Amino acid sequence: MARAGFPHSLVIGLAGGVGSGKSLVARLLGKRGAEVVDADALGHRALERPEIRRRLVRAWGPGILRRGRIDRGELARAAFGSRSSVKRLNRIVHPAILREMRRRLAGRRGWTVLDAALLFEAGVDRLCDRVIFVNAPLRLRVRRTKKGRRWSPGELERREQFQWSVTYKKKKADYVLNNTGSASRTNRQLGKILDELRRTF
C-alpha cells in the first residue's frame, strides 16, 4: 500500500490476552491503510454453517441453540469446562476460520492485518510475516471485559486457563505494544513499530 510504504505481501498478526485492546489496534491499523481480517467475525460466520452447527450440537447438545442458531454464550458455558472440551471446540471451528483467512490473503489488495484472539493456538501466526502482541495487565483487562462484555469476576481467568499463557505469547511475538493509556498514546507506539517495519520490508 503506497500510503503506508508496505508491499502487498506484508501480513501482520495481532495477538494478546482477552481485553488487551486488539480491536483498538486493528482499527488504528485500518486507518493507516491496512486491510483488517477479524477472526472473531469469521468465527461468528462459521457458527452459521449447517455442518458446523450440527457438529457443535452433537458435542454439547441442543441447549446451545436459541431459535435454531448457536447461542455463543451458551456454547462458551458448555465448552469452556475443560481443556479437552475447548480443544474439541477449536477442532470444529478453527479450520473454517483458517480457510477463510487464507482465501482473504490470496485475494488481498494491500498489506493485511490478522486480528485473532487465538493467533498462536490456531496456527494463524504461520500466515504472518510479523506479530504484534498487544499488552495490558490482568487487572485492566478484567476491568475492560467487565465493562465491555459484562463478564462476571473470574470469567476472563476461567477462559484463559485453557489458552496459551500471555507470557508465552508475548515471547513469541516480534513486537510488544503496551495498551494501557489513551488511544493516542497507543497510536504513537504503533507508529514507531510501523516505522521499524518499513525499514525491514
Count all strands and give the number: 7
- Pairing-aware structural class of the strands and helices? alpha/beta
Which strands sit side by side, in order, in the main sheet? 2-5-1-6-7
Largest sheet: 5 strands, parallel
Share in helix: 40-55%
Percent strand equals 5-15%
- Order of H and E elements: EHEHHEEHHEEHHHEH
Give the count of helical stretches: 9
Give the terminus-to-terminus CA distance.
12 Å
Q: What value does the average pLDDT take? A: 91
Low-confidence segments, given as residue ranges, are: none
- Rounded radius of gyration (Å): 17 Å
Shape: globular
Structure in words:
The protein has nine helices and seven strands. It is an alpha/beta fold. The chain has a five-stranded parallel sheet, with helices on both faces. Strands 3-4 form a two-stranded antiparallel sheet. It is globular and about 50 Å long. The model has no long low-confidence stretch (mean pLDDT 91).
